[in-house]
Write a structure and sequence with these properties.
This is DUF1648 domain-containing protein. InterPro entries: DUF1648. It comes from Lentibacillus salicampi. Residues 25-71 form the DUF1648 domain. Keywords: Membrane, Transmembrane, Transmembrane helix. The protein is built from 4 helices and 2 strands; from the N terminus they run αββααα. It has one domain (14-163). 58% of the residues lie in helices and 6% in strands. The protein has a two-stranded antiparallel ribbon with strand order 1-2. It is elongated and about 60 Å long. The chain is mainly α.
Length: 166
């Protein structure tokens, strides 16, 4: 962390507010869906999948609430972290002249990252429920690759504009 980065207030953009709203609605939907199907879930349910997407561990059906709960905690943490972009470790030198633009980009990137994490956890929760109900899951190598590439791609897409016109 560069302690010399300017500490300025950058208001949330409309895009950032929309992304946060969609993320929160996704997390709420994950909780609601999980609560709706919970009574009909068998005991035990799948709690871990190997790289091919096959179940390799089973556990209590109460565990199904863990991923939406983690998603909510992450959302809250990243939401409040988004309010202090001056503490971010950014790939460019932040000055008084570029701080507003850089912080705005960083805040939007973090909002998108927050959405991506919520989407991943929601999708895994849905897949666990599908497999527990006797369906076939689609978790596998492609999913693992996507879990790494999508957030890295987001970071890459935002670093380029940050470096442009420093």
């Amino acid at each position: 962390m560069d302690l010399t980065q300017p500490k300025i207030h950058v208001p949330a953009s409309v895009a950032e507010k929309v992304i946060h709203t969609i993320t929160l609605l996704l997390i709420i939907a994950a909780f609601v869906y999980t609560m709706m199907v919970y009574p009909g879930l068998p005991e035990p349910i799948p709690i871990h999948f190997n790289a091919q997407g096959d179940v390799n561990n089973w556990g209590s059906k109460a565990i199904i609430f863990l991923l939406p709960a983690i998603s909510l905690v992450l959302f809250i943490g990243l939401y409040f972290l988004n309010k202090v972009p001056h503490i971010y470790n950014l790939p460019v030198k932040v000055t008084e002249e570029n701080a507003s633009r850089i912080y705005s980009l960083a805040r939007t990137m973090m909002a998108i990252f927050n959405f991506e994490m919520a989407a991943i956890f929601t999708y895994v929760t849905f897949e666990i429920i599908q497999v527990a109900q006797g369906g076939s899951g689609t978790l596998g190598v492609w999913f693992i690759v996507a879990v790494f590439l999508v957030p890295l791609g987001t970071i890459g897409l935002f670093i380029q504009p940050m470096r442009h016109r420093q």
